[in-house]
Amino acid sequence: MDKLKAMKINGVEATKETILDGTYPLARPIFLYVSKKAVAEKPEVKDFLTFYLDNAIQLAEEVQMVPATQATIDASKAALTK
């Protein structure tokens, strides 16, 4: 299997810690954008987002990505129920 090796940028290694604290300059979060209307009118949209958030850490780690913090996931869950 081919592998991708992250390079140091300005002397900062790509580690879980530097990605989460924002010091690694090439790290970017992944966002899911959904309209309030879709969440309100389509239960499958809310069900998918709930599944995704409930499993976000495990899913990210399975594909060797750095997962969102639990605080970010909790805030997203709270926004979903508004």
Automatic annotation (TrEMBL):
Keyword vocabulary terms for this entry: Signal
Domain PBP: residue ranges: 2-54
UniProt xrefs under InterPro entries: PBP_domain, Phosphate_ABC_transporter
UniProt xrefs under Pfam families: PBP_like_2
Keyword NADP in annotation: no
Name this polypeptide is given: Phosphate-binding protein PstS
Protein species of origin: bioreactor metagenome
